[in-house]
Amino acid sequence: MFFEQPGNGRIQGRVSLGYARHLKLSLGAQFNYTSINATGYGNSSVISAGASVCWWLSNKLII
Predict the structure, then answer these.
(1) Residue 62 pLDDT
(2) Nearest to 51 by CA among 34, 33, 26
(3) Which one of 2.160.20, 2.20.130, 1.10.357, 1.25.40 gives the CATH number of domain 2-55?
């Protein structure tokens, strides 16, 4: 969770949820909800997502 109020009437916040599994092929996913509020301009929010893959070829070689 992230929250920031940098001044000039702006407030920004973010909530993230991530999950990963460690196998020979590791998979991960993350979902984000970001919101910003600026005095005099209103507010806006967005939902975004990300994914990652890690392939363990050996103990010393990872792609």
Answers:
(1) 66
(2) 26
(3) 2.20.130
